[in-house]
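Quick one, tokens below. Sequence please?
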């Protein structure tokens, strides 16, 4: 079951089922919207100018995918941590400055490209199932925490645009260009050095 929020939709949810399911921005902000779609598996919101996904998101226990690119969302919804079935989050081309809260243990794909994120928090280590992470075109990111090496399921990582716009300190661009395994090895050695110095 998929809910698409489109600017062209004019019919009210109160008029009954809509094939395909669609809603306007004003309807998305209504407190009862998510309550009408408790079995929702996929939420798609594109080009709506939304600053947040509103209230009630945590009630969608079956939600597996959130795809909300090209809005004005400034922060990750706190309700995300309540969604145990969630495996895909795509929030590219928004205005997100902070990756917190990052307690998303079930998420496998996270795309926060084209935002204004300044740092990758150490809490990312909690995302044990993450296999694809996209942070490209977040030019304020200059380093990755050593905890990043704990992402053993990670297969794909894209930070292009960050290390070119502003020099990466750790890992350096030449390590980043060699892929996930090289990044993990670099951060592991860095962690060992910190332990020795401590």
């Amino acid at each position: 079951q998929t809910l698409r929020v489109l600017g062209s939709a004019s019919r009210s949810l109160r008029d009954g089922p809509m094939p395909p399911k669609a809603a306007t921005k004003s309807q998305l902000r209504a407190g009862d919207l998510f309550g009408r779609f408790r079995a929702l598996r996929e939420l798609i919101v594109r080009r709506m100018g939304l600053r947040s996904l509103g209230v009630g998101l945590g009630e969608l226990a079956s939600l597996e995918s959130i795809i909300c690119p090209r809005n004005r969302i400034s922060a990750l919804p706190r309700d995300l941590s309540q969604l145990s079935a969630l495996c895909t989050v795509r929030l590219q081309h928004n205005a997100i400055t902070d990756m917190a809260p990052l307690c998303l243990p079930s998420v496998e794909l996270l795309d926060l490209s084209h935002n204004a994120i300044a740092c990758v928090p150490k809490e990312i280590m909690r995302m044990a199932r993450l296999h694809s992470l996209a942070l490209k075109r977040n030019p304020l990111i200059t380093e990755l925490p050593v905890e990043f090496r704990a992402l053993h399921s990670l297969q794909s990582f894209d930070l292009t645009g960050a290390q070119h716009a502003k020099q990466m300190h750790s890992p350096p661009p030449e390590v980043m260009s060699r892929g996930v395994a090289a990044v993990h090895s670099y951060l592991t050695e860095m962690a060992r050095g910190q332990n020795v110095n401590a």
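The radius of gyration is 18 Å. The beta strands are 2-5, 22-23, 42-45, 65-67, 88-90, 109-111, 132-134, 156-158.
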